[in-house]
From TrEMBL:
One of its GO terms (molecular function) is 2 iron, 2 sulfur cluster binding. Its cofactor is [2Fe-2S] cluster. It comes from the Bacteria. SUPFAM superfamilies: ISP domain. One of its GO terms (cellular component) is plasma membrane. Its main location: membrane. Iron-sulfur subunit of the cytochrome bc1 complex, an essential component of the respiratory electron transport chain required for ATP synthesis. The bc1 complex catalyzes the oxidation of menaquinol and the reduction of cytochrome c in the respiratory chain. The bc1 complex operates through a Q-cycle mechanism that couples electron transfer to generation of the proton gradient that drives ATP synthesis. It is found in: Cell membrane. Pfam families: QcrA_N (PF19297), Rieske (PF00355). Keywords: 2Fe-2S, Cell membrane, Disulfide bond, Electron transport, Iron, Iron-sulfur, Membrane, Metal-binding, Oxidoreductase, Respiratory chain, Transmembrane, Transmembrane helix, Transport. The keyword Membrane applies. This is Cytochrome bc1 complex Rieske iron-sulfur subunit. The keyword Cell membrane applies.
Amino acid sequence: MTDNEHEIEQADERVPKRVIGTPAPGTSMLGTAEAAEVEKEVPGVVLPDETKARRAEKIVALCFTITFIAAIAFIISYVVFQVGSPEATGVSNFALGLSLTVAILGLAAGIVIWVRQIMPKYTLVQERHAMASEEEDREVVADTFVAGANESGFVKRKLLRRTLLLAAAPLGLVPLVLLRDLDNSRMPGAKFNQMLRHTVWGEKTKEGKPLRLVVEGTGQPIRAADFNSPGGILSVVPEGYEHDLNALAKATLILIKFRPEELKSGVRQNWTHDGIVAYSKICTHVGCPAALYEQTTHHILCPCHQSTFDAADGAKVIFGPAARPLPQLPITVDAEGYLIAKGDFEVPVGPSYWERGDAEAEARQKGGQA
């Protein structure tokens, strides 16, 4: 036996365990402990029936628990369902949207039921007075806040308080998880950026030859000598991809025949053939098909939001919300005289996206270095 045995802390003397959401022993979360338990009868105030309040408390707790589960499901869906293809993107959007909707609806329904079924009903008369508040008024507001908190049952009803904290915890993590999209270079869907940046016009046929331009709908190759009427226009797709909707979403062209003297400085002359110019058909605003052409003014019009491009001057924007010209595709002819692509577009087609950056400036810089 030693004297140290008397100094050993007994189990009953240790600090009692406390569950998250519960105030420390001997203290009250809001106001005094007595105020939380006493429900005085006040004129104009209808207190809730305790039996119905307890039933509503369980429903609210269920709603908050559903919110917690749905928020966790949102985070799991964000990690599991990647966006490497349009189909996978659709599945990801559905899972994220459904889980986030259930989480928000569960939280909202729980709060509404809490307020309507558990808190007292007041008959209030608004008094108009000067905006400046006296010190006594501020004290009254503080007391009213504490009283309201006690009346809400947040202090008294532990189940409500704990399930509310449980529901709010994962929802607070949702914005942090979404910030991960700002740098997706290490995510499985990182290659999606390269898919948006390039089209199939940079590919070759099985024989290793450049892709021919064929008429959309018929698949007929285009001989430059046959497309010889100034002002003529064709909707064109790449050979071998006539029915590949994913490829056509980026690779569809508008082919226009000009007189040589009609072309302005904005057109890359070495990317044309005998006055034939090929532009992306995908509007740089939101991706609608810019397929309307006015022959006398050489204007290409997007019917969705009226963005207008000058086809004779590099498809520069002359009106509407589009911010960039339609990209020009470099073309030439093969040994048989059919129009072919010399390569892919120099810049990404269609509307902007996060990783696109200033692709036009990068292209100019590469051209200057060359």
